[in-house]
Every structure is written in structure tokens, then in C-alpha cells.
Amino acid sequence: MSEQPYVIEMRHITKIFGTNKANDDITLQLRKGEIHALLGENGAGKSTLMSILFGLYDPDSGEILKDGKPVKIKDPNDATALGIGMVHQHFKLVECFSVLDNIILGKEDTTMGFLKKKTARKKVLALSEKYGLHVDPDAIIEDITVGMQQRTEILKMLYRDNEVLIFDEPTAVLTPQEIDELMQIMKNLASEGKSILFITHKLNEIMEVADRCSVLRKGKYIGTVNVADTTKEELSEMMVGRMVQFAVSKKDAEPGQPVLELKNLNVKHPVHKKPAVNNVSFEVRAGEITCIAGIDGNGQTELGYAITGLEKPDSGQILLNGDDITRKSVRYRTDNGMSHIPEDRHKHGLILDFTLQENMVLRRYMEPKFQKNGFIRFDEVRKYSDMLIDEFDVRSGEGSDTIVRSMSGGNQQKAIVARELDHKHDLLVAIQPTRGLDVGAIEFIHSEIVKKRDSGAAVLLISLELEEVMSLSDRILVMYEGEIVGELDPKTTTVQELGLYMVGAKRDDGKEGR
């Protein structure tokens, strides 16, 4: 009996952008009912390869087979007709539409020109129940969490009866709890016979859910392994071409004077106006990394906004080197020694339609080095940008001239980190600094943050990644429902104890959480 053909086979795919070979003769084979991980560094060509499969790009050479037969995929409609769906890293949803409207958009059933919404709603609710993708069909996209938006994207694929599901960095913007839920959803889908291609560079997730893993490095195919027969260390070496240090190497902190002081800070939530930050006081000293840990949605975002000047607090004080900056502008904070790696790289970190070099000097374009009589000195900007690109290994198709929107999410993040770490500062506010980065880049960024600490800077880290919290911080402050409920030493605490504080089951004052 002949072996069943692969549900998808991509043979010898090559794609070139300018002088950059994003995909260089790559062959990938997906079996029916498997979860197949696609692993690689930022800019390795993973998203490009999947965009070719989904019809967003035409390959320069190579062919695609579906169930053993050659197919042409010119656009996403062709992909959908072949049963191929994709959840993009940055979701493709209409924010002012409801969940239901987004799911049926482009696949509307009508009778005499009228939408059959009741039928669509029944199908969506049935799919939602079957796969554990619980959503409110009437909720407006801009009002729901990122995790709910992702469920909407998955339901879009299932509503179209897609059999091949592509997940592009699906956990990059999710909380640990939402990641656990997604992993279970993916297992459920595979057990139903769906075939899943899963782009990631989180090795723990690959070990947990994937059957096989194909590795790309700098646009080339390195190999495919059975996940059950490999280790995280072997996968990381295939990915970056060298052994990766998973533990952060650092000496004990030597804290100095307070650089950042918060006194009885109160911040209201921008939408429902309830207290998001409730009477918070703490300090961050020179030469230490203080981490705010907590489950997403417990006031960390609003705290970060208040400290960096993106939102004004309702009451309380923020001091930077003893200077009251509570009502000062973002520019004032920048000029007086604050750097900021923001939580949302698109909203607050980059101007997506500017070039990479223009984004690299957003903090500093007004300095004499970069302007003369009000005119930008683009030769100096270029030199500076090229230097940062080289030092931080920021990969892009056209170097400093690349439009930032066209770069991978991980390389966009590396550009922000490069700009902010190079800016002279006494305080670095780093919010999810390694979100969307591969293990090699995480190792490098962590070592750079430790170098900043050792040179005397104060670092405030706000992170949802427990591994990062435990390995990088010198002191952990746990935030729950807008309050600091615990101060822990990462050397003497455990992940389990940290978890109890994060869910409000334990507090420093000895009282049980609400």
C-alpha cells in the first residue's frame, strides 16, 4: 500500500527581496493531523515562507503540492479555497466590527442580498463550543483582550472549514494563562485531523505541543527533527549555530542610591475609570534590576504609562534622581536620563512607515550631532543607524533604508532595544523587552541589560515571562489588582510561591488575598 501523500509539500522554495534571500531553496513537508513547528531566529524567513503558502507572496522558484498534487496559490482566496488558513502575528481584524462580523467577513451567506446572520451565529457558537474557543459574538474587537482577538482569528479559519492552519508567532502577545489555553486548543484541533504549521522561537512550546520541527537559519533549511527525540539545547544550536546560555550570567547586585521613587501613586484605567494603580510606592536603585511581576491586566500597563509619561497619574509622585517628574513630558524624561522599551512596539515604539535609520534617531534627532540649523544631518544618522544595526544584529532587507513596517516583529523589537539601550540613561524602563525574540537574541538582550545595571543604571523590568522574571531580576515586586502585594528575592523564592502572590492567594502582610 502506497504511503499517504503529505497534506502540504513546499519544494525548493526561493524568495528574494532586493539583495536579501529571505528563503533559499527550502523544502517543507506537513503530514495530516500533525503539529509541525517552524523554528528560526528573527528574520530567518519563517513568516515569508508561510506568507508564500497563504498566497501573500509569489515564490521566485519552487512549487507547492496539496495532497500530492501541484497547486498555484496566487492570493489568500486561492489558499482558502484549498483549505489553508492563517493567523498572522499582527492580527488582521477590523477593530470597529463585532467578533461575528469579523469572522464572516468575506465569507458572508446571503439570501436576496440580506445577510443570514442567525445561521452564521449558530455555526460560530457551535465551533466555539466544539474547540473551547469561547468568545462573545457581539463584542467589538477594540474592546476585547488580545487573547480573545486571537480566538476570533482562529474561528475565522474554522468558519471557512480550513484543514491546514498556520499560526505565525501565536503566543508573542499572550499572557502565560492564554498560552496554556492556546496550546490545548492546538492539541484539540490536531486530534480532530487538522494539520498545523506553528511558527515560533519559544522552545518550551515546541517541546510541549509539536510532533516535528523544521529549523531555518538565515533563509536556509537546516533540518527536520522529531520533537520526542530531541532537546531544547539541540534545537537552539540548530537555530543559531552555536550553544546558547539559557541561564542569565550575572554577579550579585550592588545597589546604590534611589534613581526612581514612586510615592502613593494612583492611576485610573483609561476606559472604565476604575483604579488601575492603587496607592503604589516603591523605589528602584542604581545598580539593580527591579522587576514588576504579575498576571496581565493587574495595573502593570498603567503603571508603565505613568512612569514614562504616556498617561498622567491621578495622584501621587514620581521622582527621577530626586526631581519631581509626575507632570513632566516624555521629552523631559528622555532628556533627564530615562530610556523606555515600550509594551506595544507598534503604538509607542516605532513609526512604521519611517525608515529604520529614522526610527533609530527618534530619541536623539534634535542633538547637534544629528541636526544643524534645524536640518537633519542624514549622513550622521546613517552612520549611527548602521552602527546599531551591526551591534544588535538587526536584520532587514535594505539595511538602514528599510521601511520598518516590512521587518519581522522580532527585528522591530531589536531596533527599539538597540535605540533605547544606546541612549544615555540613569533609568531603563523595560516592558516585555524580549517579546517576540529568539533564544539567541534574548541571551544577548539580557546580557546588555545586566551590563547597564553593572555600569550603575537602575533598571525597572515589567515582564509576564516568569523565566525572565526569575533569572534577570535582583528584586521582584508582585502586582495584584493594582497593588504591590509582595517583595521577593529571586534567589530564595520559587516559581510556585511567586504564582501564589500573582493570583492574590498570598500577601506580604500575612493576609489571604481576596
Low-confidence stretches: 510-514
- Briefly, what CATH class of the largest domain? Alpha Beta
Number of strands: 24
Mean pLDDT over the full residue set = 89
- Distance, first to last CA: 62 Å
| Oligomeric description of these chains | single chain
SS strand fraction:
25-35%
Radius of gyration: 24 Å
Portion in helices: 25-40%
* Morphology: globular
Let me know the CATH homologous superfamily of the largest domain.
Answer: P-loop containing nucleotide triphosphate hydrolases
Sheet of most strands: 6 strands, mixed
Spatial strand sequence of the major β-sheet: 6-9-10-3-11-12
Helical stretch tally: 17
CATH topology-level fold name of the largest domain: Rossmann fold
Overall tally of structural domains: 3
CATH architecture call of the largest domain: 3-Layer(aba) Sandwich
Descriptive overview:
Strands 6-9-10-3-11-12 form a 6-stranded mixed beta sheet, sandwiched between helices. The chain starts with 7 loop residues before the first strand and ends in a 12-residue tail after the last helix. It has 3 domains: 8-240, P-loop containing nucleotide triphosphate hydrolases (Rossmann fold, 3-Layer(aba) Sandwich), CATH 3.40.50; 245-337 and 426-438 and 455-514, Rossmann fold (3-Layer(aba) Sandwich); 344-423, no CATH class. Mean pLDDT is 89; it is low at 510-514. The protein has 514 residues and is an alpha/beta fold. The protein has 17 helices and 24 strands. The radius of gyration is 24 Å and the shape is globular. Strand 1 (8-17) and strand 2 (20-30) form a beta hairpin.
